[in-house]
């Protein structure tokens, strides 16, 4: 074997390498987008390692649970055998899958994978949706959404924010501010959550807000800055308040704007206090202009201050947040002013030529009183000589410390007007005035009287008496006295002939009362004593032949505002009294009789046989006539047959009325007989038409409208005083009369029973009035005064009156019309206890049940008081239907009365008379089928003066009678509504029309037609464009008046709206049209001024093609409508309606609380509405109304009539059924049409109201039927 051998070197082929080992991936500190990857070479190389392939894939970006897409993967190939590589441009805080493979020429070996995460970085986006959450005057609350996860680059540990204040931050400055903040960490605050409240801010200031997220690696970018203003707050006190001008009643002040306005100053308030700061004298608010706010200086005048007064003044400013702090008060004093009138002026003593007066300094001195001026001048005199001379004013001045003076060298029997003025450094003030008389001398007052004997007859004597011509003479009275009387005349007993001579057997009486206007002002006046006429309500009865009389003239003088009487005394030298012997002439006699008497007897004998033949016929005829009518004018003459009746159908003046005794039964009163008319029965008496038939009454009223027929008829009524009223004019009774010209006649007055142990009077201002064929059926009286309440209840008890009808309010137009004579609970009137045991209130009247009892009597008396409140003084009721309903209510409650009905208004004349006339004439209509308005009123005026006072009231009697008589009772009991509706829907056999249609047409005929002349405001050029429909406008007296300036008549606005009465409340609804775009402010002004808290909207805002629809509420938040701010605070949408609660604020009255208004918008109205839907609507509106603050309910539809009228009528019917259990659709519609005639425009709506009523009635009837079922009997076995 050889020692040499051959060597063969052979290399196998390469294969893929084995896997690498020890693969590690690490994040690089400070480099969140890098990963360091290292490994060891494969243990099985299998060839030469050519390099490595590193592949990385994004698994979770930002730890948000979201894997990346293919674009987020990468690959690195290394050509060297290095075993370490740095991966770049990775996402921070993200997880990657990393695979490493070794590579030989044979290919890539097995890959080894590992996961790794990059480190955190600062966020690269700002927080999103930065917003304001809440705002106050001192704080702002901001919120934001988190930084998006993929942009957070780590865990957001907290947020940093900054607030920038100021108005003038421009964009370039903002960018600089952001960069400076981002470069430094100064001025930043930290918050953990996603919202922050920043406090201690300035009110009414803009603030900018920025926020950024912070991770462990740093802070991200700031958000865009957002600005928001803090709310306004009350201001600090105004600065530099000073007084710049002074006058007697005003002060000028100036000041500067507060250092911290804390909002926009809109008003300033100046308060003026007295010098002790205990009493607020003036509180004045000034509005601020934009120019004033910009300049910050203010100067204003405070007026209506007291002169010569010390004050303190302070000012405060108002923003929309309210009133701020007051300034420190500064003192000020007004200058002296003219003083007020002197007080307590009085007359100390009156002499014939002197008057001593005294006074006290003015209550309003307005400075130091330096003197007084007294001016005195004669007003009138009873001295005819002095009366003929010109009256001259005289004047005196005295010092400021003097408070009395004696005026000398005056004229006797003269009235003087004396004025006193106080004086300050500014001048004289208002005068105080007093009128008084010097002592009256008898020579000046008592006229001389002489008889004209040559013209005397057997029973008359002419006289001449001198007159003074003074304007102070109220009346002249002719006093006739029996010459044999030696006792002095008691003037308190002086009365007419019947009272004084016949009843009281006195030897003197008043024969006549003459008005000075009808008496010669100079020289002598002639008068015939015994001429049988009535003069001033007194009978001048004939004198007895052969008797001697003493005739005096009594002068009634208005002295010191009281009525004084001066009765002339018999003095021969002045002829003040004249003895008059009525002549007994020596005339030829026949058979011892005067010729005239013989002739009369002879004529009587000749006609006696003839008289007997027709006497029976005449008696029968007269009896029939009396049955036909008992309310004829009739009288008897004592000198003729007592059975004769005289009828006169015309009126003559008082001084031409022939006297005859009075008859007090039935309607019989004084006769009205023309002068020189013969006392014969009228041949045409039997042909006089006694009124008119009731079926012609409506036609008559239609025909006389537009003519003077009723005017002339009213003028023919007897006017003024027709009988004496001596008792009413006694001094002790004067204060018991409310008015001096409305007094009861002696013959018809109510005479109260008196107690001999008491000093009470028998007088009350009340008169008996005859009804139709019922004497003394009524008592008409004035509204009680405070001092006559007890007398009133004495009368009620004495007369056993079951009913009091009161047709006045206690106060009307600011004037007291009647004392409150009934208690709220109980009162004592002398020995009577008055208790109110029940009260029931309706729309226009109140019914009270009153119980009376006397302490010393067992019996009690129950009286019903019916007070009608819808009747203005000297006018007529605003709603005839309500009045007739009231009148019938009284009669239905009391078909038979045990005593007279007491009727009262303020005076007991106009309204009371109208009520009595209508009530009595309704009875005449029921009994005779006729009415005679003229005859009844004329007769009643002989029992009560001024009975039915005005032409308007007289006309209303006819209108009310038509209402009461011509239209039948259309009310239906609850249980008969269904049957009644079937009858109305039944076709008439005559004209084939449903009866309901006929009733509806009848309603339309009775409807008052709209007169354009009475709609002058609505149709004026200024307002006509404020009406949606020019045919649906309010009358001037019915419209809702809105005032642009605090109810100032000179600044009155207009809105197409009317008041409509509800069942229980007058003016319960305000009905208006849907506002137009230019009337929304008027709408809110009406809501504000009438404090309406509930609006019912019956139309949609988009259901018409009319573009002029004013949406008067904001959709969200607030909105301004002129001076009114409206904010929607609650919005609720239901199936059939939308409910909004709004707050209404008047920007000119910032010190007021906002007025809350609920709007109920009904969405389900349709032409096919069912009764059940209407009742559901009423139920829902009731629920929400009771949640409101009350006030009138404002109802509107598009035209303010079609839907609104149906809604209100349904409300009225529901309340009527629930309260009375009756239905009267006819009268309901008639009532609500009073101010809006366009309501219920068609018969379909009219029929629908009956269906609503039936829907209401059915469950009530069913409930009653269940209650009326007899209870089942239960039996038990024991």
Structure keywords:
1278 residues, alpha+beta, Immunoglobulin-like, eight-stranded mixed sheet, 20% helix, elongated, disordered C terminus
Question: Secondary-structure map with pairings?
Answer:
Elements: E1 21-28, E2 31-40, E3 51-60, E4 74-78, E5 84-87, E6 95-104, E7 107-108, E8 112-117, E9 128-135, E10 140-145, H1 149-152, E11 158-165, H2 171-183, E12 189-191, E13 195-198, E14 206-215, E15 218-219, E16 226-229, E17 239-246, E18 251-256, E19 267-274, E20 280-287, H3 290-295, E21 297-302, E22 310-319, E23 322-323, E24 330-333, E25 343-350, E26 355-360, E27 371-381, H4 384-387, E28 394-399, E29 404-407, E30 414-424, E31 427-428, E32 432-437, H5 442-445, E33 449-451, E34 461-466, E35 473-482, H6 497-503, E36 508-514, E37 524-529, E38 534-535, E39 538-539, E40 548-559, E41 562-567, E42 578-581, H7 595-628, E43 692-693, H8 697-704, H9 709-715, E44 766-769, E45 778-781, H10 789-799, E46 803-806, E47 811-812, E48 815-816, E49 826-829, E50 832-841, E51 845-854, E52 860-868, H11 880-893, E53 901-904, H12 910-928, E54 930-931, H13 933-940, H14 951-966, E55 972-973, H15 977-985, H16 995-1006, E56 1057-1060, E57 1069-1073, H17 1080-1089, E58 1094-1097, E59 1118-1121, E60 1124-1133, E61 1137-1146, E62 1155-1162, H18 1171-1185, ...
Parallel strand pairs: 45-53, 46-52, 46-53, 57-63, 58-62, 58-63
Antiparallel strand pairs: 1-2, 2-5, 3-4, 3-6, 6-7, 6-8, 9-10, 10-13, 11-12, 11-14, 14-15, 14-16, 17-18, 18-21, 19-20, 19-22, 22-23, 22-24, 25-26, 26-29, 27-28, 27-30, 30-31, 30-32, 33-34, 34-37, 35-36, 35-40, 38-39, 40-41, 40-42, 43-54, 44-45, 47-48, 49-50, 50-51, 51-52, 55-64, 56-57, 59-60, ...
Organism: Stegodyphus mimosarum (African social velvet spider)
Keywords: Glycoprotein, Hydrolase, Membrane, Protein phosphatase, Receptor, Signal, Transmembrane, Transmembrane helix
Protein name: protein-tyrosine-phosphatase
């Amino acid at each position: 074997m050889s020692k040499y051998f051959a060597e063969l070197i052979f290399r196998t082929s390469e294969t893929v390498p084995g896997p690498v080992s020890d693969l590690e991936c690490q994040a690089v500190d400070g480099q969140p987008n890098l990963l360091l990857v290292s490994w060891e070479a494969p243990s099985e190389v299998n060839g030469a390692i050519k390099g490595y392939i590193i592949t990385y894939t994004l698994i979770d970006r930002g730890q948000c649970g979201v894997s990346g897409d293919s674009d987020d993967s990468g690959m690195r190939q290394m050509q060297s055998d290095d075993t370490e590589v740095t991966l770049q441009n990775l996402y921070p805080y993200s997880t990657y899958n990393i695979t490493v493979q070794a590579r030989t020429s044979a290919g890539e070996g097995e890959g080894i994978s590992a996961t790794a995460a990059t480190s955190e970085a600062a966020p690269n986006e700002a927080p999103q949706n930065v917003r304001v959450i809440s705002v106050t005057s001192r704080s702002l609350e901001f919120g934001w959404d988190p930084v998006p996860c993929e942009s957070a680059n780590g865990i957001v540990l907290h947020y940093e924010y900054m607030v920038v204040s100021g108005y003038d931050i421009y964009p370039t400055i903002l960018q600089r501010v952001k960069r400076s903040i981002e470069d430094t960490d100064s001025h930043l605050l930290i918050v953990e959550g996603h919202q922050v409240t920043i406090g201690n801010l300035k009110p009414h200031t803009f603030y900018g807000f920025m926020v950024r997220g912070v991770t462990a690696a740093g802070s991200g970018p700031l958000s865009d800055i957002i600005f928001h203003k803090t709310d306004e707050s009350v201001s600090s006190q105004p600065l530099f308040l000073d007084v710049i001008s002074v006058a007697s009643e005003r002060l000028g002040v100036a000041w500067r704007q507060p250092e911290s306005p804390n909002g926009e100053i809109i008003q300033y308030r100046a308060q003026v206090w007295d010098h002790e700061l205990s009493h607020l004298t003036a509180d004045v608010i000034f509005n601020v202009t934009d120019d004033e706010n910009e300049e910050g200086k203010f100067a204003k005048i405070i007026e209506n201050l007291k002169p010569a007064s010390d004050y303190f003044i302070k000012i405060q400013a108002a923003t929309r947040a309210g009133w701020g702090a007051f300034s420190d008060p500064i003192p000020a004093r007004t200058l002296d002013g003219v003083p007020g009138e002197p007080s307590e002026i009085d007359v100390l003593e009156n002499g014939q030529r002197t008057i001593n007066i005294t006074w006290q300094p003015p209550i309003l001195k307005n400075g130091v009183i330096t003197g007084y001026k007294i001016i005195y001048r004669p007003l009138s005199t009873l001295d005819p000589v002095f009366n003929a001379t010109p009256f001259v004013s005289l004047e005196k001045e005295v010092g400021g410390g003097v408070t009395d003076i004696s005026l000398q060298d005056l004229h006797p029997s003269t009235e003087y007007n004396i004025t006193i003025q106080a004086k300050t450094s500014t001048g004289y003030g208002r005068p105080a005035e007093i009128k008084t008389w010097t002592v009256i001398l008898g020579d000046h007052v008592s006229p001389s009287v002489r008889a004209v004997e040559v013209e005397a007859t057997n029973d008359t004597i002419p006289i001449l008496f001198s007159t003074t011509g003074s304007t102070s003479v109220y009346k002249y009275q002719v006093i006739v006295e029996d010459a044999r009387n030696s006792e002095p005349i008691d003037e308190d007993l002086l009365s007419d002939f019947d009272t004084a001579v016949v009843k009281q057997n006195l030897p003197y009486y008043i024969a006549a009362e003459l008005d000075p206007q009808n008496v010669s002002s100079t020289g002598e006046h002639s008068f015939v004593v015994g001429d049988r006429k009535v003069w001033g309500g007194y009978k001048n009865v004939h004198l007895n032949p052969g008797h001697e009389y003493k005739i005096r003239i009594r002068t009634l003088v208005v002295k010191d505002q009281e009525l004084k009487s001066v009765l002339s005394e018999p003095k021969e030298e002045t002829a003040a009294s004249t003895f008059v012997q009525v002549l007994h002439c020596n005339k030829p006699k026949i058979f011892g009789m005067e010729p005239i008497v013989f002739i009369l007897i002879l004529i009587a004998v000749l006609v006696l046989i003839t008289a007997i033949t027709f006497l029976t016929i005449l008696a029968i005829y007269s009896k029939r006539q009396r049955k036909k009518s008992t309310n004829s004018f009739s009288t008897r003459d004592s000198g003729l047959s007592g059975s004769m009746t005289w009828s006169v159908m015309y009126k003559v003046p008082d001084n031409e009325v022939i006297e005859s005794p009075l008859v007090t039964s039935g309607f019989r009163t004084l006769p009205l007989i023309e002068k020189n008319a013969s006392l014969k029965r009228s041949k045409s008496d039997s042909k006089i038409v006694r009124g008119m038939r009731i079926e012609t009454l409506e036609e008559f009223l239609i025909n006389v409208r537009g003519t003077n027929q009723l005017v002339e008829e009213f003028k023919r009524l007897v006017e003024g005083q027709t009988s004496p009223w001596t008792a009413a004019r006694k001094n002790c009774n004067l204060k018991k009369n409310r008015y001096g010209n409305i007094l009861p006649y002696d013959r018809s007055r109510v005479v109260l029973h008196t107690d001999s142990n008491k000093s009470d009077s028998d007088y009350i201002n009340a008169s008996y009035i005859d009804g139709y064929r019922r004497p003394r059926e009524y008592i008409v009286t004035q509204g009680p005064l405070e001092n006559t309440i007890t007398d009133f209840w004495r009368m009620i008890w004495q007369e056993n009156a079951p009913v009091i009808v009161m047709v006045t309010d206690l106060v009307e137009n600011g004037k007291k019309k009647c004392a409150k004579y009934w208690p709220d609970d109980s009162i004592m009137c002398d020995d009577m206890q008055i208790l109110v045991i029940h009260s029931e209130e309706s729309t226009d009247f109140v019914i009270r049940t009153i119980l009376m009892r006397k302490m010393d009597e067992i019996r009690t008396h129950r009286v019903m008081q019916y007070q009608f409140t819808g009747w203005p003084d000297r006018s007529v009721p605003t709603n005839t239907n309500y009045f007739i309903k009231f009148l019938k209510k009284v009669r239905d409650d009391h078909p038979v009365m045990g005593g007279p009905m007491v009727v009262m208004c303020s005076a007991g004349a106009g309204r009371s008379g109208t009520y009595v006339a209508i009530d009595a004439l309704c009875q005449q209509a029921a009994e005779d089928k006729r009415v005679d308005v003229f005859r009844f009123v004329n007769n009643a005026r002989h029992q009560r003066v001024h009975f039915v006072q005005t032409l308007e009231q007289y006309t209303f009697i006819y209108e009310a009678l038509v209402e009461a008589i011509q239209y039948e009772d259309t009310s239906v009991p609850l249980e008969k509504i269904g049957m009644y509706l079937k009858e109305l829907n039944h076709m008439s056999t005559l004209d084939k029309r449903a009866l309901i249609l006929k009733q509806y047409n009848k309603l339309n005929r009775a409807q008052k037609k709209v007169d354009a002349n009475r709609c002058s405001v609505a149709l004026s050029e200024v307002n006509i464009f404020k009406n949606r429909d020019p045919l649906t406008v309010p009358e001037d007296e019915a419209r809702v008046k809105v005032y642009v300036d605090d109810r100032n008549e000179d600044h009155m606005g207009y809105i197409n709206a009317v008041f409509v009465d509800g069942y229980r409340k007058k003016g319960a609804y305000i009905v208006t049209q849907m506002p137009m775009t230019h009337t929304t402010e008027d709408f809110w002004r009406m809501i504000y001024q009438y404090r309406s808290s509930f609006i019912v909207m019956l139309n949609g805002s988009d259901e018409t093609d009319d573009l002029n629809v004013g949406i008067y509420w904001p959709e969200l938040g607030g909105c301004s409508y002129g001076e009114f701010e409206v904010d929607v605070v609650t919005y609720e949408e239901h199936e059939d309606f939308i409910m909004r609660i709004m707050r209404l604020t008047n920007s000119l009255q910032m010190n007021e609380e906002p007025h809350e208004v609920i709007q109920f918008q009904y969405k389900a109205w349709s032409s096919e509405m069912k009764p059940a839907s209407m009742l559901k609507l009423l139920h829902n509106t009731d629920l929400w109304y009771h949640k409101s603050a009350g006030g009138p309910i404002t109802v509107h539809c598009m035209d303010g009539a079609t839907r609104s009228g149906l809604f209100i009528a349904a409300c009225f019917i529901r309340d009527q059924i629930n309260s009375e259990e009756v239905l009267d659709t006819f009268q309901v519609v008639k009532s609500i049409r009073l101010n809006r005639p366009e309501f219920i425009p068609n018969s379909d709506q009219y029929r629908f109201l009956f269906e609503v009523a039936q829907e209401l009635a059915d469950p009530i009837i069913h409930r009653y039927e269940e209650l009326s079922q007899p209870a089942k009997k239960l039996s038990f076995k024991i």
